[in-house]
Amino acid sequence: MSKTNNKAFTLIELLVVIAIIGILTAIVMTNFATAKSKSRDAKRVSDIAQLQLAMELFFDRCNRYPVVNTLTSMPLLTDSGGTCPSGVEFSDFISSIPTSPSPGSTYSYGVNNATTPTDYVLKAVLENNNSVLTDSIHGDYTALLPDPIDCQAFLDYCVQPR
Fold this sequence. Notes:
With 162 residues, the chain is α+β, with helices and mostly antiparallel strands. It has one domain (44-159): 2-Layer Sandwich (Glycoprotein, Type 4 Pilin). It has 1 helix and 7 strands. The strands form 3 sheets. It has a 3-stranded antiparallel beta sheet, with helices on one face. It has a two-stranded antiparallel ribbon with strand order 1-2. It is elongated, with a radius of gyration of 26 Å.
């Protein structure tokens, strides 16, 4: 009687290995998706902080905030207006208006006066519950121009002048 040396894997062993690899891939991909959404939220908060700083610098020079660009609902980069010293533009304080990292999600900016804004609200909608939401203002800012800004939803991150 001769012994056969069978060195191949059985079908069951191959299926078990494939199942284990599939489970590990699912776990990694889930964690990766969560990390990506948290990264997008961090960018949104950073963008709002950059805009807020630029607007405060503009206010310091011009005694008002930038007017709203009605096409984008964001500050107008070429805003010099009548109360600014000659040649001062909003673009002197920020080179470009940041955009949201995910399509379909936009930032909102509203002011209390169309020509000489002295108050504003900036809004971004986050994807995850985040500790930064405790710093957010909440309310329905219906008097803002060009459109009312609603900051009542749970994941709305809204700021006003500091």
